Protein backbone atom coordinates (compact mmCIF):
# COMPACT_ATOMS: atom_id res chain seq x y z
CA UNK A 1 0.00 0.00 0.00
CA UNK A 2 1.01 3.57 -0.58
CA UNK A 3 2.53 5.32 2.40
CA UNK A 4 0.53 8.32 3.52
CA UNK A 5 1.94 11.56 4.81
CA UNK A 6 5.21 11.53 2.90
CA UNK A 7 7.62 14.17 4.14
CA UNK A 8 8.08 15.76 0.70
CA UNK A 9 7.74 19.54 0.83
CA UNK A 10 4.30 20.74 -0.31
CA UNK A 11 4.26 22.70 -3.55
CA UNK A 12 1.74 25.04 -5.24
CA UNK A 13 0.67 26.51 -1.87
CA UNK A 14 -0.28 23.14 -0.36
CA UNK A 15 -3.89 21.86 -0.21
CA UNK A 16 -5.37 25.39 -0.33
CA UNK A 17 -3.33 26.35 -3.38
CA UNK A 18 -4.23 23.05 -5.06
CA UNK A 19 -7.95 23.56 -4.33
CA UNK A 20 -7.80 27.09 -5.75
CA UNK A 21 -5.97 25.89 -8.88
CA UNK A 22 -8.55 23.12 -9.39
CA UNK A 23 -11.14 25.84 -9.94
CA UNK A 24 -8.96 28.64 -11.31
CA UNK A 25 -7.37 26.71 -14.18
CA UNK A 26 -10.62 25.65 -15.90
CA UNK A 27 -12.16 29.08 -15.14
CA UNK A 28 -9.19 30.82 -16.78
CA UNK A 29 -9.44 28.58 -19.83
CA UNK A 30 -13.15 29.38 -20.31
CA UNK A 31 -12.49 33.08 -19.71
CA UNK A 32 -9.85 33.05 -22.48
CA UNK A 33 -12.12 31.17 -24.89
CA UNK A 34 -14.97 33.65 -24.31
CA UNK A 35 -12.79 36.75 -24.45
CA UNK A 36 -11.01 35.69 -27.68
CA UNK A 37 -14.29 35.74 -29.59
CA UNK A 38 -15.63 38.95 -28.02
CA UNK A 39 -15.21 42.34 -29.73
CA UNK A 40 -13.06 44.16 -27.15
CA UNK A 41 -11.05 40.98 -26.36
CA UNK A 42 -10.00 42.36 -22.96
CA UNK A 43 -7.79 39.88 -21.11
CA UNK A 44 -8.06 41.67 -17.78
CA UNK A 45 -11.75 42.64 -17.92
CA UNK A 46 -14.67 40.47 -16.78
CA UNK A 47 -15.83 37.76 -19.21
CA UNK A 48 -18.18 39.19 -21.87
CA UNK A 49 -21.01 36.97 -20.53
CA UNK A 50 -21.50 33.83 -18.46
CA UNK A 51 -22.43 30.93 -20.73
CA UNK A 52 -25.52 28.85 -19.95
CA UNK A 53 -25.06 25.13 -19.37
CA UNK A 54 -26.65 24.40 -22.79
CA UNK A 55 -23.85 26.35 -24.46
CA UNK A 56 -21.22 24.31 -22.64
CA UNK A 57 -22.66 20.84 -22.58
CA UNK A 58 -23.08 18.85 -25.79
CA UNK A 59 -23.10 15.04 -25.96
CA UNK A 60 -21.70 15.41 -29.51
CA UNK A 61 -18.71 17.31 -28.22
CA UNK A 62 -18.13 14.60 -25.60
CA UNK A 63 -18.40 11.92 -28.28
CA UNK A 64 -15.96 13.84 -30.50
CA UNK A 65 -13.43 14.14 -27.65
CA UNK A 66 -13.73 10.44 -26.81
CA UNK A 67 -13.37 9.50 -30.49
CA UNK A 68 -10.27 11.69 -30.70
CA UNK A 69 -8.76 10.03 -27.63
CA UNK A 70 -9.64 6.61 -29.06
CA UNK A 71 -8.00 7.44 -32.40
CA UNK A 72 -4.83 8.72 -30.74
CA UNK A 73 -4.72 5.69 -28.43
CA UNK A 74 -5.07 3.40 -31.46
CA UNK A 75 -2.18 5.22 -33.20
CA UNK A 76 -0.13 4.94 -29.98
CA UNK A 77 -0.72 1.19 -30.00
CA UNK A 78 0.54 0.77 -33.56
CA UNK A 79 3.67 -1.37 -33.68
CA UNK A 80 6.65 0.68 -32.53
CA UNK A 81 9.89 0.83 -34.49
CA UNK A 82 11.97 0.95 -31.33
CA UNK A 83 11.54 0.85 -27.60
CA UNK A 84 13.47 3.27 -25.35
CA UNK A 85 14.11 2.86 -21.67
CA UNK A 86 13.16 5.62 -19.27
CA UNK A 87 15.26 6.88 -16.35
CA UNK A 88 16.00 4.54 -13.45
CA UNK A 89 13.11 4.28 -10.97
CA UNK A 90 13.14 3.95 -7.17
CA UNK A 91 13.20 0.15 -7.39
CA UNK A 92 16.13 0.38 -9.87
CA UNK A 93 13.94 -0.81 -12.76
CA UNK A 94 13.38 1.11 -16.00
CA UNK A 95 10.16 1.40 -17.99
CA UNK A 96 10.00 0.90 -21.76
CA UNK A 97 8.35 3.39 -24.12
CA UNK A 98 7.45 3.07 -27.82
CA UNK A 99 9.76 5.55 -29.47
CA UNK A 100 11.36 7.06 -32.54
CA UNK A 101 13.29 4.88 -34.93
CA UNK A 102 15.75 7.73 -35.43
CA UNK A 103 19.42 7.09 -35.07
CA UNK A 104 20.61 9.57 -32.51
CA UNK A 105 19.34 13.14 -32.27
CA UNK A 106 18.86 14.76 -35.62
CA UNK A 107 20.07 18.17 -34.50
CA UNK A 108 23.56 16.91 -33.79
CA UNK A 109 25.57 15.08 -36.47
CA UNK A 110 24.87 11.35 -36.13
CA UNK A 111 27.61 9.24 -34.65
CA UNK A 112 28.03 5.47 -34.76
CA UNK A 113 28.02 5.24 -30.95
CA UNK A 114 24.46 6.53 -30.86
CA UNK A 115 23.38 3.59 -33.02
CA UNK A 116 24.10 1.29 -30.14
CA UNK A 117 22.95 3.45 -27.27
CA UNK A 118 22.24 1.37 -24.19
CA UNK A 119 18.90 3.16 -23.80
CA UNK A 120 17.51 1.98 -27.12
CA UNK A 121 16.98 -1.50 -28.35
CA UNK A 122 15.28 -2.64 -31.52
CA UNK A 123 11.68 -3.51 -31.02
CA UNK A 124 10.40 -6.98 -31.71
CA UNK A 125 7.34 -5.43 -33.30
CA UNK A 126 6.99 -4.75 -36.97
CA UNK A 127 6.63 -1.28 -38.34
CA UNK A 128 3.56 -1.77 -40.47
CA UNK A 129 2.14 1.74 -40.70
CA UNK A 130 5.56 3.40 -40.75
CA UNK A 131 6.78 1.24 -43.60
CA UNK A 132 3.61 1.86 -45.59
CA UNK A 133 3.90 5.62 -45.07
CA UNK A 134 7.59 5.64 -45.96
CA UNK A 135 6.79 3.74 -49.16
CA UNK A 136 4.19 6.39 -49.97
CA UNK A 137 6.93 8.99 -49.19
CA UNK A 138 4.68 10.57 -46.52
CA UNK A 139 7.19 9.99 -43.74
CA UNK A 140 10.85 10.98 -43.84
CA UNK A 141 13.29 8.22 -42.94
CA UNK A 142 14.21 8.53 -39.31
CA UNK A 143 10.90 9.86 -38.02
CA UNK A 144 9.14 7.77 -35.42
CA UNK A 145 5.97 6.73 -33.66
CA UNK A 146 4.89 10.16 -32.42
CA UNK A 147 5.64 11.87 -35.69
CA UNK A 148 4.00 8.95 -37.46
CA UNK A 149 0.84 9.58 -35.40
CA UNK A 150 0.89 13.24 -36.52
CA UNK A 151 1.23 12.31 -40.20
CA UNK A 152 -1.41 9.57 -39.99
CA UNK A 153 -3.79 11.98 -38.24
CA UNK A 154 -3.14 14.58 -40.97
CA UNK A 155 -3.87 11.96 -43.64
CA UNK A 156 -7.08 10.85 -41.92
CA UNK A 157 -8.25 14.44 -41.40
CA UNK A 158 -7.35 15.27 -45.04
CA UNK A 159 -9.39 12.30 -46.27
CA UNK A 160 -12.24 13.33 -43.95
CA UNK A 161 -12.24 16.89 -45.32
CA UNK A 162 -12.27 15.55 -48.92
CA UNK A 163 -15.22 13.38 -47.94
CA UNK A 164 -17.07 16.43 -46.60
CA UNK A 165 -16.02 16.58 -42.92
CA UNK A 166 -16.83 20.19 -41.90
CA UNK A 167 -13.51 20.96 -40.15
CA UNK A 168 -14.13 24.70 -40.31
CA UNK A 169 -17.16 24.16 -38.03
CA UNK A 170 -14.79 23.16 -35.20
CA UNK A 171 -14.12 26.74 -33.98
CA UNK A 172 -17.86 27.12 -33.26
CA UNK A 173 -17.65 24.05 -31.03
CA UNK A 174 -14.64 25.13 -28.97
CA UNK A 175 -16.65 25.90 -25.82
CA UNK A 176 -18.47 22.52 -25.60
CA UNK A 177 -15.30 20.70 -26.64
CA UNK A 178 -13.30 22.42 -23.90
CA UNK A 179 -16.06 21.58 -21.42
CA UNK A 180 -16.03 17.92 -22.47
CA UNK A 181 -12.21 17.79 -22.26
CA UNK A 182 -12.35 19.28 -18.74
CA UNK A 183 -14.97 16.73 -17.68
CA UNK A 184 -12.83 13.91 -19.08
CA UNK A 185 -9.74 15.30 -17.27
CA UNK A 186 -11.64 15.38 -13.93
CA UNK A 187 -12.99 11.83 -14.26
CA UNK A 188 -9.67 10.52 -15.55
CA UNK A 189 -7.77 12.12 -12.64
CA UNK A 190 -10.22 10.57 -10.20
CA UNK A 191 -9.60 7.13 -11.72
CA UNK A 192 -5.84 7.74 -11.54
CA UNK A 193 -6.18 8.70 -7.88
CA UNK A 194 -8.12 5.49 -7.15
CA UNK A 195 -5.64 3.39 -9.12
CA UNK A 196 -2.80 4.81 -7.01
CA UNK A 197 -4.49 3.50 -3.84
CA UNK A 198 -3.54 -0.04 -4.83
CA UNK A 199 -0.17 0.83 -6.41
CA UNK A 200 3.02 -0.38 -4.67
CA UNK A 201 4.98 2.29 -2.75
CA UNK A 202 7.80 2.09 -5.30
CA UNK A 203 5.41 3.30 -8.03
CA UNK A 204 4.51 6.54 -6.22
CA UNK A 205 5.82 10.00 -7.12
CA UNK A 206 8.09 11.84 -4.65
CA UNK A 207 5.39 14.57 -4.25
CA UNK A 208 1.63 14.08 -4.44
CA UNK A 209 1.44 11.65 -1.51
CA UNK A 210 0.83 14.03 1.36
CA UNK A 211 -2.28 12.24 2.59
CA UNK A 212 -4.44 15.28 1.75
CA UNK A 213 -6.87 14.03 -0.93
CA UNK A 214 -7.30 17.40 -2.71
CA UNK A 215 -3.57 18.07 -2.90
CA UNK A 216 -2.78 14.51 -3.99
CA UNK A 217 -5.62 14.51 -6.55
CA UNK A 218 -4.21 17.73 -8.01
CA UNK A 219 -0.54 16.76 -8.09
CA UNK A 220 -0.95 13.09 -8.86
CA UNK A 221 0.09 10.15 -6.72
CA UNK A 222 1.45 7.57 -9.11
CA UNK A 223 4.57 8.46 -11.11
CA UNK A 224 3.97 6.45 -14.28
CA UNK A 225 0.47 4.94 -14.18
CA UNK A 226 0.14 2.17 -16.76
CA UNK A 227 -2.16 -0.60 -17.86
CA UNK A 228 0.06 -3.30 -19.37
CA UNK A 229 2.50 -1.30 -21.49
CA UNK A 230 0.12 1.62 -22.10
CA UNK A 231 1.70 4.56 -20.29
CA UNK A 232 -0.99 7.18 -19.61
CA UNK A 233 1.31 10.08 -18.79
CA UNK A 234 3.63 9.62 -21.75
CA UNK A 235 0.61 9.18 -24.07
CA UNK A 236 -1.24 12.26 -22.77
CA UNK A 237 1.83 14.50 -22.68
CA UNK A 238 2.65 14.00 -26.35
CA UNK A 239 -0.35 12.86 -28.33
CA UNK A 240 -4.02 13.97 -27.96
CA UNK A 241 -3.37 17.50 -26.67
CA UNK A 242 -0.43 18.47 -28.86
CA UNK A 243 -1.94 17.03 -32.05
CA UNK A 244 -5.35 18.43 -31.03
CA UNK A 245 -3.75 21.89 -30.72
CA UNK A 246 -2.50 21.88 -34.33
CA UNK A 247 -5.85 20.50 -35.52
CA UNK A 248 -7.71 23.38 -33.82
CA UNK A 249 -5.24 25.84 -35.37
CA UNK A 250 -5.87 24.32 -38.79
CA UNK A 251 -9.65 24.52 -38.33
CA UNK A 252 -9.30 28.22 -37.40
CA UNK A 253 -7.18 28.81 -40.51
CA UNK A 254 -9.79 27.09 -42.68
CA UNK A 255 -12.60 29.11 -41.16
CA UNK A 256 -10.66 32.31 -41.76
CA UNK A 257 -10.24 31.26 -45.40
CA UNK A 258 -14.01 30.70 -45.67
CA UNK A 259 -14.80 34.05 -44.05
CA UNK A 260 -12.23 36.25 -45.79
CA UNK A 261 -11.34 34.42 -48.99
CA UNK A 262 -7.89 33.32 -47.82
CA UNK A 263 -6.00 32.90 -44.55
CA UNK A 264 -4.06 35.96 -43.41
CA UNK A 265 -0.26 36.02 -43.28
CA UNK A 266 -0.48 36.33 -39.48
CA UNK A 267 -2.60 33.13 -39.33
CA UNK A 268 -0.11 31.30 -41.56
CA UNK A 269 2.77 32.31 -39.30
CA UNK A 270 1.04 31.25 -36.10
CA UNK A 271 0.01 27.92 -37.67
CA UNK A 272 3.50 27.33 -39.13
CA UNK A 273 5.42 28.16 -35.92
CA UNK A 274 3.20 26.02 -33.70
CA UNK A 275 3.18 23.13 -36.16
CA UNK A 276 6.99 23.26 -36.11
CA UNK A 277 6.92 23.15 -32.30
CA UNK A 278 4.55 20.19 -32.14
CA UNK A 279 6.28 18.35 -35.01
CA UNK A 280 9.61 18.86 -33.24
CA UNK A 281 8.23 17.49 -29.94
CA UNK A 282 6.94 14.36 -31.69
CA UNK A 283 10.11 13.94 -33.76
CA UNK A 284 12.27 14.16 -30.63
CA UNK A 285 9.74 12.31 -28.48
CA UNK A 286 12.44 10.36 -26.63
CA UNK A 287 13.61 13.66 -25.09
CA UNK A 288 10.41 13.89 -23.05
CA UNK A 289 11.64 10.94 -20.96
CA UNK A 290 14.18 13.22 -19.24
CA UNK A 291 11.72 16.05 -18.48
CA UNK A 292 10.61 16.88 -14.97
CA UNK A 293 7.03 15.77 -15.68
CA UNK A 294 8.03 12.21 -16.54
CA UNK A 295 10.84 11.79 -13.99
CA UNK A 296 9.46 13.64 -10.99
CA UNK A 297 5.78 14.66 -11.13
CA UNK A 298 2.92 12.30 -10.40
CA UNK A 299 0.10 12.03 -12.92
CA UNK A 300 -2.88 13.84 -11.47
CA UNK A 301 -5.30 16.61 -12.38
CA UNK A 302 -2.58 19.19 -13.07
CA UNK A 303 -1.00 17.22 -15.89
CA UNK A 304 -4.17 15.47 -17.10
CA UNK A 305 -6.03 18.77 -17.43
CA UNK A 306 -2.87 20.48 -18.74
CA UNK A 307 -2.34 17.86 -21.44
CA UNK A 308 -5.94 17.21 -22.48
CA UNK A 309 -7.63 20.61 -22.12
CA UNK A 310 -5.24 23.46 -21.33
CA UNK A 311 -2.77 22.79 -24.17
CA UNK A 312 -5.23 22.43 -27.08
CA UNK A 313 -7.66 25.16 -26.00
CA UNK A 314 -5.37 27.86 -24.60
CA UNK A 315 -2.24 27.29 -26.67
CA UNK A 316 -4.38 27.91 -29.78
CA UNK A 317 -5.38 31.33 -28.40
CA UNK A 318 -3.39 33.38 -30.94
CA UNK A 319 -5.13 31.63 -33.86
CA UNK A 320 -8.51 32.06 -32.10
CA UNK A 321 -7.79 35.76 -31.61
CA UNK A 322 -6.80 36.21 -35.29
CA UNK A 323 -10.04 34.66 -36.52
CA UNK A 324 -12.12 37.27 -34.71
CA UNK A 325 -9.61 40.15 -34.83
CA UNK A 326 -7.82 40.14 -38.20
CA UNK A 327 -4.39 41.74 -38.05
CA UNK A 328 -2.68 43.10 -41.20
CA UNK A 329 0.97 42.03 -41.34
CA UNK A 330 3.53 43.18 -43.91
CA UNK A 331 6.34 41.03 -45.29
CA UNK A 332 9.22 42.94 -43.62
CA UNK A 333 7.72 42.53 -40.13
CA UNK A 334 6.75 38.92 -40.91
CA UNK A 335 10.41 38.23 -41.84
CA UNK A 336 11.65 39.71 -38.56
CA UNK A 337 9.14 37.56 -36.63
CA UNK A 338 10.30 34.46 -38.54
CA UNK A 339 13.87 35.30 -37.60
CA UNK A 340 12.92 35.62 -33.91
CA UNK A 341 11.19 32.22 -34.05
CA UNK A 342 14.22 30.68 -35.80
CA UNK A 343 16.60 32.04 -33.12
CA UNK A 344 14.34 30.71 -30.35
CA UNK A 345 14.05 27.32 -32.00
CA UNK A 346 17.82 27.13 -32.56
CA UNK A 347 18.52 27.71 -28.86
CA UNK A 348 15.65 25.46 -27.68
CA UNK A 349 16.59 22.51 -29.89
CA UNK A 350 20.36 22.95 -29.47
CA UNK A 351 20.11 23.02 -25.67
CA UNK A 352 17.65 20.13 -25.36
CA UNK A 353 19.58 17.94 -27.81
CA UNK A 354 22.89 18.70 -26.12
CA UNK A 355 21.59 17.68 -22.71
CA UNK A 356 19.84 14.59 -24.03
CA UNK A 357 22.88 13.43 -26.00
CA UNK A 358 25.02 13.95 -22.88
CA UNK A 359 22.60 12.12 -20.57
CA UNK A 360 22.30 9.22 -23.03
CA UNK A 361 26.03 8.82 -23.48
CA UNK A 362 28.44 11.31 -21.84
CA UNK A 363 31.32 10.12 -23.98
CA UNK A 364 29.42 10.74 -27.21
CA UNK A 365 31.96 12.67 -29.32
CA UNK A 366 29.33 15.30 -30.13
CA UNK A 367 29.34 16.41 -26.49
CA UNK A 368 32.53 14.83 -25.18
CA UNK A 369 34.54 18.05 -25.68
CA UNK A 370 32.22 20.04 -23.43
CA UNK A 371 33.45 20.94 -19.97
CA UNK A 372 31.72 19.19 -17.06
CA UNK A 373 31.84 19.04 -13.28
CA UNK A 374 31.51 15.81 -11.29
CA UNK A 375 28.87 15.24 -8.65
CA UNK A 376 28.75 12.79 -5.74
CA UNK A 377 26.05 10.78 -7.57
CA UNK A 378 28.46 9.89 -10.37
CA UNK A 379 26.44 11.93 -12.88
CA UNK A 380 28.23 14.96 -14.30
CA UNK A 381 26.88 18.42 -15.09
CA UNK A 382 27.64 20.31 -18.29
CA UNK A 383 29.24 23.68 -17.61
CA UNK A 384 30.07 24.76 -21.16
CA UNK A 385 28.15 24.82 -24.43
CA UNK A 386 24.49 25.89 -24.08
CA UNK A 387 24.43 24.80 -20.42
CA UNK A 388 27.39 27.06 -19.68
CA UNK A 389 25.53 30.13 -20.93
CA UNK A 390 22.61 29.98 -18.46
CA UNK A 391 21.28 27.18 -16.26
CA UNK A 392 18.13 26.75 -18.39
CA UNK A 393 19.01 27.65 -22.00
CA UNK A 394 16.10 25.50 -23.27
CA UNK A 395 13.64 27.75 -21.37
CA UNK A 396 15.20 30.82 -22.96
CA UNK A 397 14.69 29.41 -26.48
CA UNK A 398 11.13 28.39 -25.64
CA UNK A 399 10.33 31.91 -24.36
CA UNK A 400 11.76 33.56 -27.48
CA UNK A 401 9.51 31.32 -29.58
CA UNK A 402 6.53 32.24 -27.39
CA UNK A 403 7.20 35.90 -28.20
CA UNK A 404 7.31 35.11 -31.93
CA UNK A 405 3.92 33.37 -31.69
CA UNK A 406 2.28 36.47 -30.20
CA UNK A 407 3.85 39.18 -32.38
CA UNK A 408 1.82 38.32 -35.55
CA UNK A 409 -1.28 39.35 -33.56
CA UNK A 410 -0.04 42.95 -33.30
CA UNK A 411 0.27 45.02 -30.16
CA UNK A 412 -3.27 46.40 -29.85
CA UNK A 413 -4.39 43.66 -27.40
CA UNK A 414 -2.85 41.91 -24.41
CA UNK A 415 -4.84 38.71 -25.02
CA UNK A 416 -2.49 37.11 -27.61
CA UNK A 417 0.37 37.70 -25.14
CA UNK A 418 -1.36 35.58 -22.51
CA UNK A 419 0.71 32.54 -23.53
CA UNK A 420 3.97 34.50 -23.16
CA UNK A 421 2.95 35.80 -19.72
CA UNK A 422 1.66 32.45 -18.42
CA UNK A 423 4.65 30.63 -19.87
CA UNK A 424 7.13 33.03 -18.23
CA UNK A 425 5.43 32.44 -14.86
CA UNK A 426 5.33 28.66 -15.46
CA UNK A 427 9.01 28.46 -16.41
CA UNK A 428 10.21 30.72 -13.59
CA UNK A 429 8.29 28.53 -11.11
CA UNK A 430 9.46 25.35 -12.84
CA UNK A 431 13.04 26.57 -12.74
CA UNK A 432 12.76 27.18 -8.99
CA UNK A 433 11.31 23.66 -8.49
CA UNK A 434 14.09 22.15 -10.58
CA UNK A 435 16.75 24.08 -8.61
CA UNK A 436 15.42 22.57 -5.38
CA UNK A 437 15.49 19.07 -6.85
CA UNK A 438 19.00 19.52 -8.27
CA UNK A 439 20.22 20.93 -4.96
CA UNK A 440 18.86 17.85 -3.20
CA UNK A 441 20.41 15.55 -5.83
CA UNK A 442 23.80 17.21 -6.32
CA UNK A 443 24.39 19.30 -3.15
CA UNK A 444 27.79 21.03 -3.26
CA UNK A 445 28.30 20.29 -6.95
CA UNK A 446 25.11 22.20 -7.72
CA UNK A 447 26.42 25.19 -5.74
CA UNK A 448 29.62 25.01 -7.79
CA UNK A 449 27.56 24.95 -11.01
CA UNK A 450 25.55 27.99 -9.85
CA UNK A 451 28.77 29.89 -9.11
CA UNK A 452 30.17 28.96 -12.50
CA UNK A 453 26.91 29.74 -14.39
CA UNK A 454 25.24 32.45 -12.29
CA UNK A 455 22.25 33.27 -14.53
CA UNK A 456 19.16 31.08 -14.57
CA UNK A 457 17.33 31.79 -17.84
CA UNK A 458 18.35 35.13 -19.41
CA UNK A 459 22.08 35.97 -19.55
CA UNK A 460 23.02 38.99 -17.40
CA UNK A 461 19.37 39.59 -16.44
CA UNK A 462 17.88 36.63 -14.59
N1 LIG B 1 5.39 24.49 -23.93
C1 LIG B 1 5.19 24.21 -22.66
O1 LIG B 1 4.11 24.40 -22.13
C2 LIG B 1 6.29 23.69 -21.82
C3 LIG B 1 7.52 23.42 -22.36
N2 LIG B 1 8.54 22.99 -21.56
C4 LIG B 1 9.82 22.72 -22.20
O2 LIG B 1 10.16 21.39 -21.91
C5 LIG B 1 11.58 21.23 -21.92
C6 LIG B 1 12.01 20.40 -20.72
O3 LIG B 1 11.87 21.15 -19.54
P1 LIG B 1 12.08 20.63 -18.02
O4 LIG B 1 11.71 19.22 -17.91
O5 LIG B 1 11.42 21.62 -17.14
O6 LIG B 1 13.59 20.84 -17.71
P2 LIG B 1 14.97 20.42 -18.35
O7 LIG B 1 14.84 19.69 -19.63
O8 LIG B 1 15.80 21.65 -18.37
O9 LIG B 1 15.51 19.40 -17.30
C7 LIG B 1 16.06 19.76 -16.07
C8 LIG B 1 17.02 18.67 -15.68
O10 LIG B 1 18.17 18.71 -16.53
C9 LIG B 1 19.29 18.23 -15.83
N3 LIG B 1 20.31 19.28 -15.87
C10 LIG B 1 20.22 20.53 -15.39
N4 LIG B 1 21.35 21.21 -15.60
C11 LIG B 1 22.18 20.37 -16.25
C12 LIG B 1 23.51 20.49 -16.73
N5 LIG B 1 24.21 21.61 -16.60
N6 LIG B 1 24.07 19.42 -17.33
C13 LIG B 1 23.35 18.26 -17.48
N7 LIG B 1 22.10 18.09 -17.02
C14 LIG B 1 21.52 19.13 -16.41
C15 LIG B 1 18.84 17.95 -14.41
O11 LIG B 1 18.39 16.60 -14.31
P3 LIG B 1 19.42 15.35 -14.21
O12 LIG B 1 20.73 15.88 -13.79
O13 LIG B 1 18.78 14.42 -13.25
O14 LIG B 1 19.48 14.77 -15.61
C16 LIG B 1 17.59 18.81 -14.29
O15 LIG B 1 16.71 18.32 -13.31
C17 LIG B 1 12.17 22.64 -21.94
O16 LIG B 1 12.64 22.94 -23.23
C18 LIG B 1 10.98 23.53 -21.62
O17 LIG B 1 11.12 24.79 -22.23
C19 LIG B 1 8.36 22.80 -20.23
C20 LIG B 1 7.17 23.05 -19.65
C21 LIG B 1 6.02 23.51 -20.39
C1 LIG C 1 -2.36 23.59 -16.39
C2 LIG C 1 -1.20 24.05 -15.63
C3 LIG C 1 -1.08 25.53 -15.59
C4 LIG C 1 0.12 23.47 -15.94
C5 LIG C 1 0.12 22.41 -16.95
C6 LIG C 1 1.46 22.33 -17.57
C7 LIG C 1 1.44 21.51 -18.83
C8 LIG C 1 0.50 22.13 -19.85
C9 LIG C 1 2.88 21.47 -19.37
C10 LIG C 1 3.85 20.83 -18.36
C11 LIG C 1 4.98 20.41 -19.16
C12 LIG C 1 4.62 20.34 -20.47
C13 LIG C 1 5.45 20.03 -21.57
C14 LIG C 1 5.00 20.20 -22.86
C15 LIG C 1 3.60 20.67 -23.11
C16 LIG C 1 2.99 21.39 -21.94
C17 LIG C 1 3.16 20.64 -20.63
C18 LIG C 1 2.37 19.34 -20.65
C19 LIG C 1 5.81 19.74 -24.07
C20 LIG C 1 5.21 18.38 -24.43
C21 LIG C 1 5.62 20.73 -25.24
C22 LIG C 1 6.51 20.36 -26.43
C23 LIG C 1 7.98 20.38 -26.01
O1 LIG C 1 8.83 20.14 -27.12
C24 LIG C 1 8.30 19.40 -24.88
C25 LIG C 1 9.74 19.65 -24.43
C26 LIG C 1 8.22 17.96 -25.36
C27 LIG C 1 7.31 19.73 -23.71
C28 LIG C 1 7.52 18.88 -22.46
C29 LIG C 1 6.85 19.56 -21.29
TrEMBL record:
Membrane topology summary: Multi-pass membrane protein
Localisation: Endomembrane system; Endoplasmic reticulum membrane; Microsome membrane
First-level EC class: oxidoreductase
UniProt-listed Enzyme Commission number(s): 1.3.1.70
Gene Ontology biological process terms from the UniProt entry: cholesterol biosynthetic process
Record's keyword terms, sorted: Cholesterol biosynthesis, Cholesterol metabolism, Endoplasmic reticulum, Lipid biosynthesis, Lipid metabolism, Membrane, Oxidoreductase, Steroid biosynthesis, Steroid metabolism, Sterol biosynthesis, Sterol metabolism, Transmembrane, Transmembrane helix
Transmembrane segments: 12-36, 56-78, 147-167, 173-194, 295-317, 329-348, 399-420
Keyword Metal-binding: no
A single Gene Ontology CC term: endoplasmic reticulum membrane
Superkingdom in the source lineage: Eukaryota
Annotated pathway: Steroid biosynthesis; cholesterol biosynthesis
Major localization class: membrane
Molecular function as annotated in GO: Delta14-sterol reductase activity
Reactions it catalyzes: 4,4-dimethyl-8,14-cholestadien-3beta-ol + NADPH + H(+) = 4,4-dimethyl-5alpha-cholest-8-en-3beta-ol + NADP(+); 5alpha-cholest-8,14-dien-3beta-ol + NADPH + H(+) = 5alpha-cholest-8-en-3beta-ol + NADP(+); 4,4-dimethyl-5alpha-cholesta-8,24-dien-3beta-ol + NADP(+) = 4,4-dimethyl-5alpha-cholesta-8,14,24-trien-3beta-ol + NADPH + H(+)
Record Pfam families: ERG4_ERG24
Function: Catalyzes the reduction of the C14-unsaturated bond of lanosterol, as part of the metabolic pathway leading to cholesterol biosynthesis.
Family: Belongs to the ERG4/ERG24 family.
Record protein name field: Delta(14)-sterol reductase TM7SF2
Recorded name of the encoding gene: TM7SF2
Amino acid sequence: MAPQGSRAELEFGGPLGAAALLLLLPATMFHLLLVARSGPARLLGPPPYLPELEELWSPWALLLCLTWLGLQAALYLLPARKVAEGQELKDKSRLSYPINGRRGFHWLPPHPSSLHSQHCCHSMYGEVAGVALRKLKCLPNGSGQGFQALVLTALLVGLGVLAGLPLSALPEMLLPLAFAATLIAFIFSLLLYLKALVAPASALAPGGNSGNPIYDFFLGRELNPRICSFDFKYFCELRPGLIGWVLINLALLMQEAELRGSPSLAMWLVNGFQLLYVGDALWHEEAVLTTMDIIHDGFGFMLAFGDLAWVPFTYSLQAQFLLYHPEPLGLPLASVICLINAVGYYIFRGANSQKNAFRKNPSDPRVADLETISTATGRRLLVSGWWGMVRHPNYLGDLIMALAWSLPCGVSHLLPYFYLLYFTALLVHREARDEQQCLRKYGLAWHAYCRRVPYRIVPYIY
